[in-house]
# Entry
Amino acid sequence: MSGTAHPRNDPAGGRCPDGGTAGPPGTPGRPGPPGIPQDPDRARAAVVQRRTVRVLMAAQIIAGIGMGSMLASGSLLVGRLTGSDAGAGLATTCTTLGAALFGIPLATLSRSRGRRIGLGTGWLIAAAGSVLVLVAARLGWVPLVLAGSLLIGSATAANLQSRYAAADLAEDAHRARALSLVVWSTTLGSVIGPNLSGPGEPVARALGEPQEAGTFVFSVGAFLIGWALIWFLLRPDPLRLAAALARGETEDAPADGRPALPGGPTPTGTRPAPFTTRIAAALRHVRASPAALLGLVATVLGHAVMVSVMTMSPIHLAHHGAALSVVGFSISLHIAGMYALSPLIGWLTDRIGRIRVILAGQLIYVCAAVVAGTAGDSQGAVVTGLFLLGLGWSCATVAGSTLLTESTAPEHRSEVQGLADTLMNLAGAAGGALAGGLVALIGYSGLNAAASLLILPVLVLALAPRSRT
# Structure
């Protein structure tokens, strides 16, 4: 790997050239030579890693219900209140923009206070946003609905950063698998969520809400339960423990107040670098590493493709006579494509390499655009295209996030991860904002064609020789 990339694994193959893993034997997350007993710190890290993954998975399942339940309903609710198809896309746009706005602050909070505080805060803000949407929907105030949607975006930010939390203590050779398990755990909740549109209607009537707003009641409860699981069960904190072990300590929360930064402590008596300085340094670090740059671009543009097409698909289905239950089912299958096969994708990423899986994701994106873009009034074709769209996103996100993480030096990793999620959601917000206007100008088929053009930069970087060195 060239530049300043962190030489943990070969990006194309997922392992070091000799088949082992980088780093001194016995260090946390790295297996030692066969026959040599593990040291106590590494054994503890392995136990905490298993517990961490279980807790993160449980929180993702529950909180995923809150995220999934409002995906279709948010667009339909704003569409009803504004009476405009172009306006309908604003709900998803605001949620995605909110995820971008909260990405770096939550990552910074995790860096200074640990994953438990960072992730838990994200779920609490989302719960408050869901309450705000319910109040605004009853009053018919569209700006307030959009403000609530912006706050709900923090749930997406917390969801995305949970995959990095699963990698804090993971072994190099199994990092993609650990990351993908947390991504996969969102499947159950997120598939159930959109199908709550039907049960949400009587709830909405009982509360005097528009029928599309009922699912936000379920979102409030789901986000609060997700917060409780993280707050009470994510102990010891994986990021703080990883930092402590990297410093040769045994406690996950050192008493001297040093930040939980993997890669070494902050020297006593010195101030941490300003936030903007750290972000600028992280950007320079990514630009100097072709593999890290590929991981970043693959996740960012892949998310833009997914959000732009997914945003207008419920509207397209509704215009062709699809019932609310069919719209919810289509989003469920789309989310299943995003999450259900992620353990397999994680295994493939570790097995055949990060770059190959990224390229496979780009091919799937093209297939999704062709199937959905030529669907016309065929609801089945749109649903199939949405499933493929989610599957392409899973390949790009799992492989791209793994490549980005392992190609980034520990001292820059938290900032790079937060920056990646912020850029990812800004790109998604832009795609969602433009989607309604593109459909009005060139139709749903044109939207799919325009979105598929975003794979070109990824292909250029992935096929460049420097990305494989």
Summary: Residues 1-37, 251-270 have pLDDT under 50 and may be disordered.
